[in-house]
Amino acid sequence: MRNQSLLGAVIAALLFTMGSAAKGVEESEGGKTENANPREAYVFKTIGEKKLKIHFHYPSDWKATDQRPVIILFFGGGWTSGGVGQFTRQAEYFASRGLVAARADYRVKSRDGVTPDKCAEDARTAVRWVRANAGKLGIDPQRLITSGGSAGGHLAACAIIVKSVEAENDDLSISTIPQAMVLFNPVLDLTKGPMVKRLGGDKELARKISPTLHLDKNTPPAVIFFGSEDRLKMHGHEYWEKAKSLGVRADKFIAEGQGHGFFNHSPWLQRTLIVADKFLASLGLLEGEPTMQAPTGEASQAQGQQNKRQTWQRHQRAEQAKRQAQRFFGQNDRDNDGKLSRAEFPQRLRRFLIALTLTRTA
């Protein structure tokens, strides 16, 4: 019975440290890839046996000889998890409005053992690949928009940095700087708080991938979305304040009563797309009025209540997992050093964790 209890605690601890309880950024934001139906996909980067693909959605009247604006979307997941299917609905909408829309993959910690700087390298490679292949994609390389959510929003914003982390084989003569950004609750400064720990405490490396620190008068315009209850919204406030002082356009959208990842669900999915549409139209990157309509009245209210319940339930599960993890460590940390040595860790659970790790990395 004690081993079963410990086993449950360890599982809870693993879910806590790898999932939604890791301070908001790791909240699961990846979409279901089985719903993706892109018109075309290309491998844009190969690292060893790993092939990274970028998935394109084209307007119905698209031709390879077109010169359309293009938007590149990066999924969220705390640089740890997530999936390229997350922004399928947004990509389909933008394609219906005349953009070429692309959803780019990148390496993440849970699958590839990488840190955020490598995620940023992959994102910068994706932007360069799109520009280099404009001729066959039917796009104008000088009308490029980067977009993403949470960690993906961070990667989209990293494109504005002139000198950042770079992949060894990238053509550095091709700029990563977009003409506009659409950012959903992005991380924008990795030098503060616990964020730098994800880079082993390397503050100089953190600075290289902290978009707010690289703002200048030439930074492209952005629209940035945050929920009022998102603990990461301070990233938005710091960016907005600095952009204002530089005379750089940075539109603000705050969803009252909403937390991290609110834009993934109705009615905020529709509302944020309408705002993004109008923002891009104001820059000449879209024409006409938005074709998306947000739910109204009782349907909108019911959906909002459901989203709040789901957010509360995720929080409760995270808190329960945290309490179980704390009990487990308290029961087994016999020398009270805050860590579990090999000798302190129950042998049966050690074998289980090794098997679990091998399964996750297979």
Inertia-based shape: globular
What would you say the CATH architecture of the largest domain is? 3-Layer(aba) Sandwich
Helix content: 40-55%
Question: From the alpha-carbon coordinates, what is the Rg to the nearest angstrom?
Answer: 21 Å
Q: Structural class of the helices, strands and pairings?
A: alpha/beta
Portion of residues in beta strands equals 15-25%
- Biggest β-sheet description: 8 strands, mixed
Strand order of the largest sheet: 1-2-4-3-5-6-7-8
Q: Give the tally of structural domains.
A: 2
| Low-pLDDT segments | 1-7, 11-38
Work out the helix count: 11
CATH superfamily of the largest domain: Alpha/Beta hydrolase fold, catalytic domain
Describe this structure in words.
The protein has eleven helices and eight strands. By secondary structure, it is α/β, with parallel strands linked by helices. The protein folds into two domains: 2-16 and 308-361, no CATH class; 31-294, 3-Layer(aba) Sandwich (Rossmann fold). Helix 1 (2-18) packs across helix 10 and helix 4 (116-132) packs across helix 6 (151-158).
